[in-house]
Amino acid sequence: MNRILSYILSLAFVIAMTGCISDDSDLETLIAESEQAIAPYIDIDFDYSPLFEDADEPITDPTDPYYNDYVENDTYDRVIYITFNGENVEIDGADSYGKVNVTANGAHVTINSNYGRMEYVLRGWSLNGSVKIYSEHKFKLTLDGVNLTNPNGAAINDQCGKSVYLVLNKGTYNSLTDGATYSVPSGEQMKGAFFSEGQIIVSGTGLLNVNAQGGHGIASDDYIRFRPGCRVNVLASAGHGVKANDGIFIDGGVLNISVNGDGFKGIKSDLDVEVNGGRTTVITTGNSKLIEQTLETMADTSSCAGIKSDAAIVINGGTLNLKSTGEGGKGINSTDDLTITGGIVNVITTGKKVYSSPKGIKSDGNITVSGGAIYSYSRWGNPIEAEATLTIGPGYATNENDELFWKIIY
User: Fold this and answer.
1) Alpha-carbon distance 293 to 270, whole Å?
2) d(Cα 213, Cα 176) in Å, to the nearest integer?
3) Same domain as 92, residue 2
4) Number of C-alpha atoms within 13 angstroms, CB side, residue 100?
């Protein structure tokens, strides 16, 4: 009853605060968004429905630091088609270029290229196949209805340190699955079902399913960007769902990430995470992982989290739905500052504390909220916790019930 009363009072506050708005459509939108963010009995599940987004207009200024993230700014006029057919593969177009060597061992394809305008189009299926790419230049990798499983490692292994433009062709279903164990050549790395040494920029409106059994789902030793329109589902049981060293940027698209394993994160970056749009849903079910404990020291643990950054997290827009059900789990966990300027953030954590303290939204630095709507519920921990300062912008209300451990911010 207390929670229902709190909901009614909170909604009344929203209406009161917006009474000066003359546009009924704006008021209705605000109320609808607030209801979505504050429903006291909210649950979080995967949402595969289409998301209608504004068109992603490419940056055309070559001096812009993100100019390179738009495949439209280059011309990829040489195309190689790789079609999988069970234990075999058909390669079309490789012989005419000279600077590109494509070989196959069964359905395991290796590409060696020193040409800078290559596009590789993957089609067909194999339960014992993979693609490994060595290149001196960035390239375009188009998934055009491919279903690929590699029992001994990554389904796609990009050993190029440049950008890979991962394009999901419109109307196509694509699936990548790694093996439970990896066979990694000396001197190389292979960290996930889709692994790249360089940047990964995901675009297109097709569907990609990633099933990670031996490593992360999608992993880059640089950064990863998701552009509006893409649809990506990741199931990870042996690592993080999406992992990057140098940042993760969600500009749009639909991401559904399920992680089942102790200490794993749905989205994990060593540097900043930035959310600008889209609809991202992450559900983690693992417990905390005990790393080290002695008689003289406290336990060193790694807990699950929907989003974890070893640097800062910035949320400017979009919808985040994050649920962690295991011991010590967290929704958002930032080692540095957390800044929320817009969007809708829904967080649920239901796990208790054994090794690690559960939290809804946690920052080791400052938390600053100047826009958006937030619902954070932690059954056995703090819904929102900042090690430094928690700053709520003017015009916002805070409604909390310490007994039930829930907190709402508008």
Assistant:
1) 24
2) 11
3) no
4) 24
Residue range 308-362, pLDDT digits in tens: 999 999 999 999 999 999 999 999 999 999 999 999 999 999 999 988 999 999 9
Strand-pairing partners, residue 103, are 110
Q: How many structural domains comprise the chain?
A: 2
Strands (E), 86-152: 88-92, 100-105, 107-113, 118-126, 129-135, 139-149
- 80 with 121, same domain: the answer is yes
Which residue type sits at 353? K
**What pLDDT, in 10s, does the model give residues 105-130?**
999 999 999 888 899 999 999 999 99
Q: What are phi and psi of 360, to 5 degrees?
A: -75, -65
Tokens of 368: 């600053």
Q: Cβ distance 109 to 131 under 8 Å?
A: yes
Q: Report the relative pairing of strands 107-113 and 118-126 from DSSP bridges.
A: unpaired
* Helix (H), strand (E) counts: the chain: 2, 37
- What pTM does this model have? 0.87
Q: Are both 21 and 143 inside the same structural domain?
A: no
Structural domain that includes position 357: 1-58+247-288+302-410
- Based on the fold, state whether residues 404 and 262 are members of the same structural domain: yes
Query: Tens digit of pLDDT for each residue in 243-269?
Result: 999 999 999 999 999 999 999 999 999
